[in-house]
Amino acid sequence: MRRAASFFLRVILSAGIFIYVITATGSVSEGPFLLRFWASFSAVIGKFASIPFSVLISSVALYVIVLLSATLRWQILLTDRGFGVSYKNTFKYVLIGQLFNNVMPSTLGGDIVKAYYIHRDTLGSKKTAVFTIFMDRVIGSLATLLVIFAGAVYLQAKEPSLQILVYAFIAAAAVGAAAMIILDEKYLEKLKFYRKLPGGHPMRKLHYAFFYYKKGGRKAFFQALAVSLFIQVCAISMSYIIMSSFLQKPLSYWHFVCIIPVANIVQGLPISFAGWGVGEAAYTVLFKMIAVTSEVAVGTSVSVKLIILLVALVSGLPVYIGNKKNEIIQSDS
Q1: In terms of C-beta distances under 8 Å and separation of at least 24 residues, what long-range contacts does 313-316 make, across chains too?
Q2: CA 20 to 30 Å from 230, out of 1, 75, 200, 315?
Q3: Rounded alpha-carbon distances, angstroms, from residue 249 to 50, 246, 258, 272, 292
Q4: How far apart (Å, rounded) are the C-alpha atoms in residues 317 and 144?
Q5: How far is CA 92 from CA 127, 154, 327, in A?
Q6: Which long-range contacts (CB under 8 A, 24 or more apart) does 278-282 make?
C-alpha cells in the first residue's frame, strides 16, 4: 500500500508540475486554464513533430549508444568481480531496467528490477553482484560531476558566477579524498568499535565492497569512469542537436556541458515519475540563463523524453514480454 501510494503521489506531482510548466511557458495568456494548457501542449508537441528526420535518427542513435555503453560499464564491474555474465544478458537487464524506469506503471525502479535478475541469475556472492549496480550509479554520478566541473572551468572566464561552482567542486573533492583516507580499513581498525565487529558483519562487508575499487578494482573503476564520461557526451549531444534544430542557430556546446548534467540530476530525484514535470521545470530555469525561451527549453526536454520512451518501448518491451514466462536464464558457463 505504501509503495502504491508513493507511486500515485509521484504521478500526481509529475502531472501537476508538468501541466503548470507547460501552461506557463505557452504564448496563450487568456482564457480557461485547460484551453491554455492544451494550446501550449499542442505547441510543444509541434516542436517535437518539427524535428528534422536526420536529427531524430541521430538522437535515437545517440540514446542507443548510451544504452550500449551503460551495458558495457556494468559488465566491466561484473567481470571484475568474477561474474561471467555475457554482454547479451547484461544488455537484457539494462533494457528491462530502462523500461521500468521510463514506461512501466510500477512502483519498482529499474535498478530494483536489474538487482532482481542479477541476484537470481549469478553464481557466487549475490550481494556482491547487486552491489555492482550501486557502484555503477556511483561512478555514473562521479562522471556527471566531472563533466559539470569541466564545463564550469571552461566557461568561468565568460561567466564569473561559475567560479563558485568550481571552488565548491574542488572543496568537495578535497573532502572526498580525506574521507577515502580516513575511512581506510587500516585506520578503522584502530577504532575499538570496529575491531569488535565480526568478519561477516554487514558494515565490514559493505566497507570491503566499496573500498575494493580503491585497490584491487582500480582498473575496472577507471575503465567504467571512462565509459561514463562517454555516456555524458552522448546524452549532452542529444539535447544539443535537438535544441539547435529548434533555434536554427549555433549554440555554445560548453553551456550544454554545464546545464544538461545538472538538469539530469534534478529530474533524476525520486520525486516525480520518470522526471516528467521536474525535468521541464529544470530545463526552463537553467536555459533561461543563456537566453533560451521557455518554449524551446520545454520542447527540448519533452522531445528528449519522448525519444527515450520510444526506444524503451521498442527495445525493452519485447525483451520483457519475451522473458515474462520463461525469464532470462543465464546460459554462460
Answers
A1: 313/99, 313/103, 315/64, 315/67, 315/95, 315/98, 316/95, 316/96, 316/98, 316/99, 316/103
A2: 315
A3: 15, 8, 19, 33, 12
A4: 28
A5: 20, 38, 11
A6: 278/14, 278/17, 279/305, 280/17, 280/18, 280/21, 280/22, 281/17, 281/21
Contact 42, 298 (CB under 8 A): no
* Placement of cell 503521489 in the chain: 9
pLDDT (tens, 9 = 90+) of the chain, 333 residues, equals 666 666 677 778 777 877 878 887 766 666 677 787 878 888 888 888 989 999 999 999 999 999 999 999 999 999 988 888 889 989 998 998 888 888 765 545 778 888 877 877 776 667 777 888 888 998 999 999 899 888 888 887 777 777 777 778 788 778 877 777 767 766 777 777 777 777 667 777 777 777 777 777 889 999 999 999 999 999 999 999 999 999 877 788 988 998 999 899 888 877 777 788 888 889 998 898 888 888 899 999 999 999 999 998 998 888 888 776 555 444 444
Beta-carbon contacts of 269 under 8 Å, excluding residues fewer than 6 positions away, are 278
The x, y and z cell numbers of residue 221, run together, are 573503476
Whose grid coordinates read 581498525?
A: 189
